[in-house]
Amino acid sequence: MVDSSIKFLTLLALLYCLFVPLVEARVRLYKWEVKYEFKSPDCYKKLVITINGRTPGPSIIAQQGDTIVVELKNSLLTENVAIHWHGIRQIETPWMDGTEGVTQCPILPGETFVYRFVVDRPGTYLYHAHYGMQREAGLYGSIRVGLPDGQTEPFLYDYDRSIILNDWYHKSTYEQAAGLSSIPFVWVDEPQSILIQGRGRFNCNAPGIEAGLCNATSPECVPYALTVVPGKTYRLRIGSLTALSALSFEIEGHNMTVVEADGHYVEPFVVKNLFIYSGETYSVLIKADQDPSRNYWASAKVVSRNSTTPNGLAIFNYYPNHPRRNPPTPPPVRPRWDDVGPRLSQSLAIKAHRGYIHPPPQTSDRVIVMLNTQNRVNGHVRWSVNNVSFNLPHTPYLIAYKHNLLHAFEQTPPPDGYDYANYDISSVNTKNVNATTSNAAYRLAFNTTVDIILQNANTMNPNNSETHPWHLHGHDFWVVGYGTGKFDMFNDPKKYNLVDPIMKNTVAVHPYGWTALRFRADNPGVWAFHCHIESHFFMGMGVVFEEGVERVGKLPTSIMGCGDSKGYFRP
Amino acid sequence: MVDSSIKFLTLLALLYCLFVPLVEARVRLYKWEVKYEFKSPDCYKKLVITINGRTPGPSIIAQQGDTIVVELKNSLLTENVAIHWHGIRQIETPWMDGTEGVTQCPILPGETFVYRFVVDRPGTYLYHAHYGMQREAGLYGSIRVGLPDGQTEPFLYDYDRSIILNDWYHKSTYEQAAGLSSIPFVWVDEPQSILIQGRGRFNCNAPGIEAGLCNATSPECVPYALTVVPGKTYRLRIGSLTALSALSFEIEGHNMTVVEADGHYVEPFVVKNLFIYSGETYSVLIKADQDPSRNYWASAKVVSRNSTTPNGLAIFNYYPNHPRRNPPTPPPVRPRWDDVGPRLSQSLAIKAHRGYIHPPPQTSDRVIVMLNTQNRVNGHVRWSVNNVSFNLPHTPYLIAYKHNLLHAFEQTPPPDGYDYANYDISSVNTKNVNATTSNAAYRLAFNTTVDIILQNANTMNPNNSETHPWHLHGHDFWVVGYGTGKFDMFNDPKKYNLVDPIMKNTVAVHPYGWTALRFRADNPGVWAFHCHIESHFFMGMGVVFEEGVERVGKLPTSIMGCGDSKGYFRP
């Protein structure tokens, strides 16, 4: 008996060695149906876009090298849809980036579109609608890519958890968009609540609430509880998909060790609170090392805006306390919304983990300075880059470039800079109030190194400069420098960190400051680069990069069928 | 001088004679942009779909034989659109009917679709969105087709005016649609107001109204004033595009002489109040023959439902009284909502004008009885015809038939009748609670005569039967009979009016009654026939007729590009 058991185990081990490589690179198939449903994520009932009945949608959990297949059925009544896989570089599949107007036509009601792409790196990523302002309607979720079996991260933890932070409006995205493009401008205002993993809490007793819409006892708005076992260490993956808000996240009485940012290992550092901007992801390690007889608040507070939005609250629940038992202490109130210093400090603190440094090119081939301003165009309030306010064409760039439909958008390239000498970034924009609009793209020479300097400035309101989190599709970039004031083309580049800069896909430019980033234009395709604040991108704060499009393989016709590619779909 | 003037006038007259035929059959070009805007048609601000900034949209005013060209630009953000030309038969242009899923693919954001069709008969018609529930969002307007120069109608009037009646919801169409397809069912409830030519009046002091949304002094909700000169006779063209409501329209103290219905001359008859159902149009003559020192109420009251919706009010304004001066008398309160008798009487009173009778075929080739019921399908509340609840395919029928894409929808034909012997129309539907859904079409032999018997029944609520106005695309039909109770296949046809029946495109089936109509299947194409109540059609109350599709000319590819025709568009 013993002998045959050993033989059997040996056989099993042999089979394991033979088949594990096959098993590891799996195809993970998801069938999603997108539709409108009424939900009360913050106790206030409104129409949201769900995936398979949920918002946030189902998590994608995969391993490095897996192929993700999402069969996305659009069951909206009259509305199209597209989903972006945020942080996935789409190497060799630029047509699967899910960015309407850039990489694909929208998916019509009744259609099923198949997204198929490889998750080639471990890390914490996101997905969300990338069409109109649909992300704000609740169409988002998380992607967690694990290491191959047998490989380990450069840090230890007992459990792995994910949350997404979001802000939440009660008005529909249509109402918001119509207001933003109206004359006079109707601002969407501050969000009604902050959601932690899809749950928030709106005060149903607030005045002026339409009767019957708010139910403080709805099970849908029970605060999210992160249940922990005393003494254990948790890896908490935190993503932000706020429409507007920059957030400070903290867990009362617990330090957090930052270990990952946008899929890259961070040289660990400890924070009391984590600043996180829309489009970013972080992993932090939290040890459940406090008094286990009680629960603690997890709190997400708006910073960078003097917001009326109350903090989002969740419960850091020490097992076996009841997960709905409120902590005995008041929720955290810090930090001050207008204290930029700590935010800049955190930005500067994030370096590549010393064992995982990707050395950046030491020089760049092209520098594009991007002045971030608020402007007026024909009476509309807009956001601009170098006084050009972006609008999307209706023929996606990728198709237009590959199929020579260049009349589909403007061909005069957007400017690589602005009038540095004469533009005062520190006061209200008077000189360049009138910007122009364009849908022209930046064309980058393939395999060159590009520097982008994001230059912040005063808005159209006195003494106001906003934080803009910029997200680049199809790439990670090195964050080589931050500074305050106006970027100095001569001196500031000398201070770039070209030793151990972190790579990210989203980075903030702080009020009145600048952020320098570098990337290799080595991923053939057309890629959006834009402020991740939903209303800012809608109002023109974005650009598009074309690089090596001649190297892009044959496009699937499933992405076609709109604008000048209307007849290009082939079954 | 005199001599040369006479010569010149003679020349002018000659030129007139030469060119008038060309001038008469004009091409009338409209450029419309469709988008969302905030409007307060009943003092309550909500997002509506406008055409060139207006709701109702611009009127189309043409003469018989004109070609209408509407270049429709979709400037919605994420939503498609399609517009139906209600009452225009689209002879030889069945692809221009504007019915999404039946005759065309929806028009994508950013696209411009060109509608081009001939208005071949004089009369009063309508246009409105025919996609999802967009009609309710405000996308509608009127079409007035005049006689050729020199021809006259069989009645006299001094002035010609048009109004559209509508009911108005404060919830968005998305919210309504999501509720209707939810389990449990969320009914849209009664409309908040009745609009007369796009203006209504909601009580801003009603409890539970969100602050800041209702403004009783908004100029957008000043009641519509129909200004009249004492002693003159007005032709008032009245169309109804209500989402739900059957209406009684009257002008305090004034008789109305009904002279036109759905583009056909009516043997004149006088009413105090006009019952009008969604999708119908009427012309009435009104003589301004009352005390001219004051104004009078025009009132639209909901009938057939025990509605909470207040009457819609406009001002019948005797010049030179101020058009905003309220009449000194209270608005009319009649008729009773549940008094079916007068409504049936009006239906029976409408006959073809004796000089304009189109004699109907004396026999029919096929009789289709259509039982109208409310049912449940998989827990959803639905409306059905012969216990089949309709849903639209995503490949329009017209394209599917012409291009042999018959797999795009079910091929088992829907039933031509129901179990007459055993179905009790007068009580709650228990036997056939569970209907099925289908998108199969009725195929009619070309050039045959078809009778449709609309058979009403009790809904799923005790002692309740609703009024359903049925609208046929691509045709007018003869209304050959009405009756109460269950249609008797043997005896009732003997009582058909085959002498002077009116032709219409929309007709009501009254509670617990039946309506018989006859038409010639002589217009090659695919045509929707459905209850014109927006929520009822959404919930399955419709069918589709195919007739002579093999005779339809080459389809323009501009209608293609969705479902199985996704690649069929050719620029």
UniProtKB/TrEMBL annotation, chains A, B:
Cofactor: Cu cation
GO molecular function: copper ion binding; L-ascorbate oxidase activity
Keywords on record: Copper, Disulfide bond, Glycoprotein, Metal-binding, Oxidoreductase, Repeat, Secreted, Signal
Catalysed reactions, as listed in the record: 4 L-ascorbate + O2 = 4 monodehydro-L-ascorbate radical + 2 H2O
Keyword check for Metal-binding: yes
Leader sequence segment: 1-25
Cellular component GO terms held in the UniProt record: extracellular region
Name recorded for this polypeptide: L-ascorbate oxidase
InterPro entries to which the protein is assigned, alphabetical: Cu-oxidase-like_N, Cu-oxidase_2nd, Cu-oxidase_C, Cu-oxidase_fam, Cu_oxidase_CS, Cu_oxidase_Cu_BS, Cupredoxin, CuRO_3_AAO
Family to which this protein belongs: Belongs to the multicopper oxidase family.
